[in-house]
Amino acid sequence: MRIPRRLPATVAASTLLVGVLTYDAAAQAPQIITCDGASTTTFSPGVTTTPQDNVTRKTTGALWNCTGDPTATSATFVSEGVGNQVTCTQGTFRDKPGAVQRTSWQATAGELTSTFTWQMSPIGDLLEIQNPISGGITDGRYKGATWTTISDPARSVINITDCAKVGGLRSMRLGGRLVITLPN
Q1: 33: domain range?
Q2: What is the pTM of this model?
Q3: Secondary structure (H, E, C), 93-152
Q4: Is residue 51 included in any domain, yes or no?
Q5: What confidence tens digit (pLDDT) does each residue in 84-121 have?
Q6: In a domain, 44, yes or no
Q7: Is residue 153 part of a domain?
Q8: What is the spatial distance between Cα 121 and Cα 148, in angstroms, rounded to a whole number?
Q9: Residue 13 located in a structural domain
């Protein structure tokens, strides 16, 4: 049996095309970084059942068990926000103008900080999986990425009944999972 001369060239060209398509598909997949995390948030004044303006929110926290970027496995973060017409069941907190929204990565390579934006759903909704805290990374490590944190009710403490008490809800602790998605 005689092998046509074009067969080896056709096989080589097909192999190259499959390799290019496979590489292109891999190049198009977004990079995903995930971390376990926990944070403590304080409110001033405390959040109540009556709408209030200029409620300041400050959050500090930590990230660990990060995967998806072998050079950064943990971090700490700080964030400040303000809410207007917020109660424990309505309103949204956003970045506080002029405040630092920063993550400091314990990394072996690359930039060591990220600056981010965010918004937070009403406090009463934070333990619902469809109401995550989310935002974007505007500078530094992972610039251009989006991020979402899904709270884990088993690792979170929100004394929602404090909203009806004098002084309102002054602090809460959230535990959950952070997902950073870098664009392709």
Answers
A1: 29-182
A2: 0.78
A3: EEECCCCCCEEEEEECCCCCEEEEEEEECCHHHCCCCCCCEEEEEEEECCCCCEEEEEEC
A4: yes
A5: 898 888 888 888 887 778 999 999 998 999 998 877 76
A6: yes
A7: yes
A8: 12
A9: no
